[in-house]
Amino acid sequence: MIITLLVIAVIGLYIYKSSIKDGDIENEESEQRGSLITKRKKTNFQERNESMVRMANNMGISVEEVKEDYISDLEKNNIGTDFKAQIIEDLEFGKIEESKVFGIKPENTGSALMREWFIEYISAKENQKIDEEVEEILKERNLIPCSAHDKKKYEMRMQLEERMENSVIEVCKTNPMINTPLAVIAITEAIGIVSENYKKNLIEGKDEIGLNEFEITVLIEEAKKKIFNNLIEHKI
């Protein structure tokens, strides 16, 4: 199995350190042959495949299990987003060092593979964190969605309100009635113009966003009310 991950430094050097033995063996054999490890030009696929085989041998598992075991170790050691930049930096360093040992391109080394898997893993972690934060907000407001579709609508409504409000403010800036007793008229007109534009664009792309026309109309109406109350309260 992969050696215990030390959060800050060790993870990026794992493949390099654990592969030194293999590298020494290959160098010894090549010296006996009176040549370098290899002079023939290999494809990226061949180099990456050899790196995978080398990792599997060092870990004592099959090639098919390498990525799964690596991700499992990240989970087991509770590696989160706190050290993301440091770990990626260590793996970048590992790529260079490992490429020197085995005479392959840095992007085809075991460290490079680990970097790709780590970014994939940490991205999933970050998305999970966002989902958990959204769910927490929904709980606080007693608006816990009963399905993934409802959750998607909620997230879209939050984004829609912010974007529409910013658009309304931009439209109001050019209206001379703002900052006068007639400001409410200007705000109402701006909300009407902006909401119609957003509604039209969303309906045109309804298949892509996964909402039907009725759902879009409801979202727009809810956003209009929220924006009106916000702008009247703060008087733009």
Could you write a compact summary of the structure shown?
This protein has 236 residues and is mostly helical.
Number of helical elements = 9
From the N-terminal CA to the C-terminal CA, the straight-line distance is 60 Å
Number of strands: 0
| Contiguous uncertain segments of 5+ residues | 1-39
Helix content: over 70%
* Largest sheet, strands/sense/barrel: none
What global shape is seen?
A: elongated
The chain-level mean pLDDT equals 77
The helix/strand series, from N terminus to C terminus, equals HHHHHHHHH
Range of strand content: under 5%
Gyration radius from CA atoms, angstroms: 28 Å
Secondary-structure-based class equals mainly alpha
Description:
By secondary structure, this protein is an all-alpha fold. Helix content is 72%, strand content 0%. The protein has helices at residues 14-33, 44-59, 66-76, 84-102, 110-140, 148-173, 183-204, 206-209, 213-234. 22% of the residues are buried.
Which key terms come to mind for this protein?
mainly alpha; 236 residues; 72% helix
What is this structure's SSE topology?
Elements: H1 14-33, H2 44-59, H3 66-76, H4 84-102, H5 110-140, H6 148-173, H7 183-204, H8 206-209, H9 213-234
Helix pairs in contact: 1-4, 3-5, 4-5, 6-7, 6-9, 7-9
